[in-house]
Amino acid sequence: MEFYIETYGCAANKSDSEIIAGILKGAGLNQTKNIELADLIIINTCVIKQPTENKILERIREIQKKFKKKKILIAGCMPSAYPEIIRKNFPELSMISGNRTTEILKVIRKILDGKRVELLGENKKEKVCLPKIRENRVIDIVQICSGCLGNCAYCGGKLAKGQLFSYSIENIVKEIKSAKEQGCKEFWLTGQDVSCYGFDSGSNLSELIRKILEIRGKYFIRIGMLNPTHLLKIIDNFLKVCEDERIFKFFHIPVQSGSDKVLREMNRNYAVKDFEFIVKKIRNKFKRATIWTDIIVGYPTETEEDFQKSINLLKKVKPDWTNISKFGVRRKTKAARLKPLDSEVVKERSIILSELAKKISIEQNKKWLDWEGEILIDEFFKGRNFAYKSIHLNSKEIGKFVKVRINRIDGLKLFGEILDS
Known about the structure:
The protein is of the alpha/beta class. The chain folds into 3 domains: about 1-120, Methylthiotransferase, N-terminal domain (Rossmann fold, 3-Layer(aba) Sandwich); about 140-360, Alpha-Beta Horseshoe (pyruvate-formate lyase- activating enzyme); about 370-420, CATH 2.40.50. The chain contains 13 helices and 19 strands. The protein has helices spanning about 10-25, 50-65, 75-80, 85-90, 105-110, 155-160, 170-180, 205-210, 230-240, 260-265, 270-285, 305-315, 345-365; strands at about 1-5, 30, 40-45, 70-75, 95, 120, 140-145, 145, 165, 185-190, 220-225, 250, 290-295, 320-325, 370-380, 380-385, 390, 400-410, 415-420. Helix 1 links the parallel strand 1 and strand 2. The longest helix has 24 residues, at about 345-365. It is globular and about 60 Å long. The N and C termini lie far apart (about 45 Å).
């Protein structure tokens, strides 16, 4: 029996797919990368953006039409947040909520018996220390929590992931130790918002990282998305533990708007000055830290003045990378009740902000020319330095630490040469 997995969305979804593959392999099934050879097709879905949802639905239709005799299972966030969409469009297909991933084997057994299955709702089971088939043998995507403490007015992710559920420090450390013994050298601590890790269990992210760093050896840790609201509460201790050279000096802090008014209407629970304060503290502590952020353009209440404030914020903060998203209505959210802006206005704002963000990223990249230091080769012909900068180089030696010099910059890409050790 061959199975094929197609994954959409965030690092946590990628981790879920690796876990699904591990569970199924343990039950005697074989994974194939060729959908044509599969008996069972699993689509691991995402609901954060409407265009992605549309793409997934179209892809499922395409698969159904082409492979009429194959078994198909819809997994991930769409069954969690919008099961009615699957029932309406694909009434004959089975589905499993992303919150029930660890129970996938019993669902698949029923599907193979010719039954249609819906396994929805939540299951408070940690997604650590589970079988896993990694896409990249040196990177372990470690889910440290699921859900979040926020109630953002626009977000479908909350519908899919639910309330914060932090996994135990003991089990997270155990997973990383095991993965390290298997050859992993890069660990991604991921979740919908890792900055609030432990707030539901009397712990916090700083304490978790400190415990992980007790694991001896040479490796890198990448910290996932950090909401300014919760990061503010732990910022000093957090930056202290990040002094360890094994922590990538990489901070993904989504601001979403440069307007306090829009942030209030989004129910983000922080002000622009809070974001600026955090970025300033990080850069004062780590001069060459990489800052990523996210901005939504065209929120229904965003005026030209609000939009200009987002422009001004980017010019002031100069993030190394900014993910620009056009606002898209997500069903069952508060923002879905708001009258949307004219699509041409949103499109124009997106183009303006995207061009500015790209220009800033290119300027920030130029500062890395002639940098020398050690990187971990974590992909074919690519490696990461201490600031999680992706450096293209002529090497396939995945998992090896090498010393390089950045000798060329081409727009958003950094190129390096390996130096003699």
